[in-house]
């Protein structure tokens, strides 16, 4: 399995139905109280692409990608139109939109990274919530438009983006206690969730009645930093 540098058709992606899932286990005690054990540190997203297919041409694009990706074997990029900016999408991207991330000790969860005068590589993340924040690893950012800042000062150079995984590496370690931030847009690495695509020709032929929406599932693929 490898990641292909190709993208799911954006016009079809715009009509997809999205699901965000977390895996946990609810245990009801004899007292009636509950304990909830978290099995996944990171959430996982999935989409039903069938809702975005409106024409035979749309379907042809998706089928071509299905064949190119060898079904479930290889992953590719997907534009989640509901969430693809480092901010909420209502304002221009800035270099201070999000903190850079660092793994919390003995965990696969991320916390805000700060400079220590030694570490040079940090994870791009997006923060959700305010009190009990979740930092989502961003593993497929766009290099175009990517902005990085140290202590609120944009850095036009002196850093690089990893080929995969969404890691920012500084040429020189940021100074001790430095605030590290970034702004970006991103795609999500996904694969087809099933080994087949089911369609009905009648769905695309208005003169023969109404068929059912094609069933085409996409599942987020965890890459590099996105373990857990």
SSE string, helices as H and strands as E: EHEEEEHEEEEEEEEEEEE
Poorly predicted runs of 5 or more residues: none
Q: How many strands, what sense, and barrel or not for the largest sheet?
A: 9 strands, antiparallel
The helix count comes to 2
Number of strands: 17
What integer is the average pLDDT? 91
Q: How many domain modules?
A: 2
Shape category: globular
Estimated helix fraction: under 10%
Distance between the termini: 19 Å
SS-based class: mainly beta
Rg value = 20 Å
| Fraction in beta strands | 25-35%
Pfam families: DUF2460
Protein name: DUF2460 domain-containing protein
InterPro entries: DUF2460 (IPR011740)
Describe the structure.
The protein has 228 residues and is mainly beta. The chain has 2 domains: 1-84 and 187-228, no CATH class; 85-186, no CATH class. Helix content is 7%, strand content 33%. The chain contains 2 helices and 17 strands. Strands 7, 8, 9, 10, 11, 12, 13, 14 and 15 form a 9-stranded antiparallel beta sheet that branches. The longest helix has 13 residues, at 56-68.
């Amino acid at each position: 399995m490898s990641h292909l540098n190709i993208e799911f058709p954006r016009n079809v992606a715009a009509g997809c139905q999205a699901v965000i899932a977390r895996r946990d286990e609810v245990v009801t005690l004899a007292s009636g109280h509950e304990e909830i054990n978290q099995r996944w540190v990171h959430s996982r997203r999935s989409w039903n692409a069938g809702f975005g297919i409106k024409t035979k041409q749309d379907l042809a694009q998706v089928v071509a990608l299905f064949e190119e990706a060898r079904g479930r074997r290889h992953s590719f990029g997907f534009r989640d139109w509901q969430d693809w900016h480092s901010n909420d999408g209502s304002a221009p991207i800035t270099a201070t939109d999000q903190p850079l991330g660092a793994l919390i000790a003995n965990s696969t969860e991320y916390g805000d990274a700060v400079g220590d005068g030694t570490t040079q590589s940090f994870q791009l993340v997006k923060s959700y919530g305010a009190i009990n924040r979740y930092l989502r690893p961003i593993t497929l950012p766009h290099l175009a438009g990517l902005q990085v800042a140290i202590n609120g000062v944009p850095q036009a150079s002196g850093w690089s983006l990893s080929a995969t995984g969404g890691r920012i590496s500084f040429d020189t370690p940021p100074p001790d206690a430095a605030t590290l931030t970034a702004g970006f847009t991103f795609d999500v690495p996904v694969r087809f969730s099933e080994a087949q695509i089911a369609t009905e020709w009648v769905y695309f032929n208005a003169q023969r009645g109404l068929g059912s929406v094609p069933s085409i599932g996409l599942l987020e693929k965890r890459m590099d930093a996105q373990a857990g």
